[in-house]
Write a structure and sequence with these properties.
By secondary structure, this protein is α/β, with parallel strands linked by helices. It has 15 helices and 13 strands. Helix 3 packs across helix 4, helix 8 crosses helix 9 and helix 9 packs across helix 11.
Length: about 425
């Protein structure tokens, strides 16, 4: 791979290594692959100083909140980098969401502030860069929405064709609209995300198209930057907990991998715990964790949190490895818990799509269970913008989601009034 040294691919399952010259997503044994690098060649103290010197850069690839950390992402020449200056997202005090969760020191990292409105841009900038290095002309993904929006955008800015496989029904239109607008060839298949994932792998293998789902090991590398950036924003003071939604499980796999690298380099000296939160209707990892059983895919997953409606996540092995390293936990939350937590995040003036708010719902549940202390320093990760799924927002506040078993407990219903001053005064006063 052009100019990249001391880096290789390694199977999570059997440990077999591959060089970067050939495009690979899986090991010969069927296991998924990690990007590995020789950390002994890196001086952690100097690297941290280098990253600090890049903070606040105004232009160029290294102003990106991903490529600022390129030495641990993909140490490639800047001419190959495909970027929209992603990252640099804000870290908010959780406000009403903190009160709701019962956590005194609760911050929310809002990845919905990325260019296409979700954390996927961090992985996609790295995946699209790899595609460019491999001279790909077309890229493809299966998606419940956010991945397709991100891939179509990054393909467009780099002159590649994008092919998107989306599941039939129950895809948020805010996400589908982006994929269409950015020029993606969008194929709606008769099946769910897992069916699409199986099909896209076959298509990419047989039609010489570069695959950009999170099975692509370079996607995971880009997503590590979420953790790096949070720690830099905290002046490298490590929180007690990270709480993160779990769908295809690439995000929490990336978070734990990145933290482990920082720990091995001596950039951090404390290992934070990670809590992965799944929707109750889409919870294969939570079932495995709670029942202490082997991994079993979940058929026909269903949740209003469409971004994590995945029954057979490709990164489950990486996720388990990371959780074991950090003494993490897995929990699931109901549809009602997700949407009530979302109401609190939104009412705090921050806002996020339903899947994001599993972080807050899960944090509250873990506090109630006595696993997270109310005095712990906690960072919840919000993965997508509030406008990714406006139907869910309006449905909750108009209390029209009862057929899904969701009540508008904290609904802020719109008022229909006569066009008079008296009617306005009555509405404002609550009468």
């Amino acid at each position: 791979m052009k100019g990249i040294v001391n880096t290789w691919l390694e199977c999570v399952h059997c440990g077999k290594q591959y060089d970067l010259e050939q495009v690979r997503y899986n090991c010969e044994c069927g296991g998924i692959l990690d990007v590995k690098r020789d950390l002994s060649k890196i001086d952690g103290k100097k690297l941290k100083q280098l990253w600090e010197s890049r903070w606040g850069m105004k232009r160029g690839p290294l102003s990106s909140g991903v490529w600022r950390y390129k030495e641990l992402i993909l140490d490639v020449a800047e001419e190959y980098i495909v970027t929209r200056q992603e990252g640099n997202t804000r870290l908010y005090p959780a406000g009403k969401a903190a009160e709701y969760a019962g956590i005194r020191n609760f911050l929310l990292k809002h990845e919905g502030e990325n260019p296409t409105g979700s954390f996927k841009d961090r992985g996609m900038t790295c995946g699209a860069t790899a595609a460019k290095i491999y001279d790909a002309t077309s890229v493809a993904c299966a998606s419940t929405g956010n991945t397709s929006a991100s891939m179509a955008s990054y393909a467009a800015i780099s002159g590649m064709k994008s092919i998107i496989f989306i599941p039939e029904g129950k895809i948020a239109y805010g996400k589908l609209a982006q994929a269409l607008a950015f020029g993606g060839i969008t194929l709606q298949i008769k099946g769910n995300f897992d069916d699409g994932m199986e099909l896209v792998q076959e298509v990419c293998a047989k039609l010489n198209i570069y695959l950009l789902n999170s099975i692509n090991p370079f996607r995971i590398e880009g997503q590590k930057a979420i953790g790096y950036e949070i720690l830099q924003q905290l002046d490298w003071e490590v929180p007690d907990w990270f709480v993160i939604p779990g769908g295809n499980l690439g995000n929490n796999s990336a978070l734990s991998k990145g933290l482990q690298e920082l720990y091995e380099l001596g950039i951090i000296s404390k290992i934070p715990r990670i809590a992965v939160i799944q929707a109750e209707g889409s919870n294969p990892l939570a079932r495995m964790w709670k029942n202490k059983t082997g991994y079993v895919p979940l058929k026909n997953p269903d949740t209003i949190a469409t971004a994590i409606k995945i029954g057979n996540p490709v990164s489950w092995e990486k996720a388990m490895r990371g959780l074991e390293w950090c003494n993490g936990v897995v929990e699931d939350v109901t549809e009602q818990e997700i949407m009530d937590a979302k109401a609190m995040v939104d009412a705090a003036g921050i806002g996020a799509e339903p899947a994001s708010c599993c972080s807050v719902a899960g944090a509250k549940k873990l506090v109630d269970m006595g696993i997270i202390s109310p005095d712990a320093k906690v960072v919840g990760i919000l993965t997508g913008n509030i406008l990714k799924d406006p139907d869910a927002v309006v449905g909750y506040h108009k209390d029209t989601l009862r057929d899904m078993g969701i009540k508008g407990v904290y609904a802020n219903k719109p008022h229909v009034i006569e066009p008079t001053l008296e009617a306005v005064k009555a509405a404002i006063s609550g009468k």
